[in-house]
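Q: Can I see a sequence and its folded structure?
A: Here is a first one.
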Amino acid sequence: MLLLVAPALATVAVFAFIGSWNNFLGPLIYVNTTEKMPISLALRLFQTLHSAEYGLMMAASTITTLPIVALFFFAQRYFIQGIVLTGLKG
């Protein structure tokens, strides 16, 4: 039964990772030092420091999204497997 649930578990794991990766409000309230900031909060701090330099902002945003894109490509086979299993009858 675990083989049938694996695509759903992979989807939940990816969504949980994205939710914790993009968490902004909690660390904004609780974290006081820049060394302990998550990447989304550090990106906002970077934006306030370099607001007119669009090249640097685009590079920082790209670096921020790279782990999520990499996780999607590693978990993509589970998504496809879930779609394929949904269409089977029998």
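Q: Show me another, different protein.
A: A second, unrelated one:
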Amino acid sequence: MFDSLPPVHSVDKLIDIAFRAGRKRALEVRGKRTPDKERKFYLAEEARVKVVGKVIEGELKSIIHNFPSYENLTPFYQRLLNLRISKDSYKKSLGAIGWALKNLVKLRENTLKKMSREREIKYVRAYLGRCCSLLKRVGKDMEMVKEIRNVLRSFPSIKEEPTLIIAGYPNVGKSTFMRRLTGAKVKIAPYPFTTKKIQIGYVKLGHKEFQIVDVPGILDRPSEKRNKIENQAMLAISDLAHAILFILDPTQELKPQLNLLREIRSKFKVPIFIAVNKADLLKKKNVPYQEEKINFIFSATNKEACWNVFREIAKVL
């Protein structure tokens, strides 16, 4: 959804690009043969101002026109963004760039008017200096917009489809299940918090498409002590889930996993299915979850087993 956001240069880089382009254009005009050398010199400096203005203003306009206003983001994206960048920072930075653009346009227009009226090039140096000054005043805002771009581009593209959330502790097999089911390319490794952002995949059963969401692992601890990765997961469950598949790993400590399960059950009123992964490592009669109703015992590395689990869940989606 946000892949088309334009690149954002640092202020120093933007100034360098614009001034180089202006200098190149001025040299091109000076290189033209004409008997009126004084006029040629004037036209070269006029061209410099126009090109510098075009480059700088073009980048700022691109930011203003392509970055969505905070209010136009969906509530889910607003809340997801707030985990990384505050609403005030977002609006302030875009507002500051809009202010700089307005003043740069006015500065260029006034400079060209003075040059045309007086046939003087003395205003060019002042224009270039003022451009630098205005841009440096919003330097921190430009850096913030670069960060905003990176954050927005990391967001998943959400569809209005029946959605299954895969939840649980870190490293219990959520991403393995996701990959077996959807073929989505997700990073899998034998250490906690492999999944650092929300992963999206899609499957079809008959003529119906389903959205599968693999969220980062969540630890059993108070919400105020959870990190941004965990908070992303809780937000996705809250805003997107039509059903939840909670995966337990019998090779990890069970008590914190079950505590997390009970927390999720208390907070989210959607169907929750409980699956025990790594069935090859235990026998059904030895599953130590008497206090919980286990819906599935399977191995996430087995594609057919994953599909069997999903077919049952799909009946309520």
